[in-house]
Design brief:
mainly alpha, 7 helices
Length: 169
């Protein structure tokens, strides 16, 4: 099993650990326990995503990258958080949108919806349409929201069909 206290684990040890985990019942774990732990982890991760979003906006507003010698804020985020430039920009975009969408932010903080779902919802929801796009009932909607055409307006609702901007043969 993977040891909690060991951060530096070699590739051979990881493979051996995975092989041992195939029969995890031997060391007292059952599937329910592991499932509970993973769900708890997902909930904590969602809360951390909200906290990160808040701190990203605050850090950008304070220009923390300047006194630290980074050329841009995105470079700062890349180096400090390990995100690639596009991911850093996307995290900032979502953070800005979460400021305007309190119900979505609350649902993410509570672990009721994943960051991936929120990322998609923030592409289409506005303060006026947030209730219609409520993440608490968004389970089946995220796939539909990602079909929005690039030129389609953001203020569509879950029942609005995407606007096709081009026809492909």
């Amino acid at each position: 099993m993977f040891e909690r206290s060991s951060v530096h684990v070699g590739a051979h040890e990881v493979v051996s650990g995975i092989e041992r985990e195939r029969g995890a019942r031997a060391d007292g774990h059952d599937w329910r326990s592991v499932d509970r732990q993973l769900r708890s982890l997902a909930q904590r991760r969602a809360a951390l995503d909200v906290e990160e979003a808040r701190l990203l906006l605050l850090a950008r507003r304070l220009d923390v990258h300047v006194p630290l010698g980074y050329g841009t804020f995105v470079e700062y985020v890349e180096r400090v958080l390990g995100y690639r430039p596009r991911t850093a920009q996307e995290r900032l975009r979502v953070a800005e949108r979460l400021e305007e969408l309190p119900a979505t932010r609350a649902a993410l903080a509570a672990g009721e919806v994943s960051y991936s779902a929120v990322r998609e919802l923030t592409r289409v929801a506005t303060p006026d349409t947030e209730e219609a796009w409520s993440p608490r009932s968004a389970a089946g909607r995220c796939a539909r929201s990602s079909t929005r055409s690039p030129g389609a307006p953001r203020a569509i609702t879950p029942t609005t069909r995407p606007i096709r901007t081009s026809s492909r043969a």
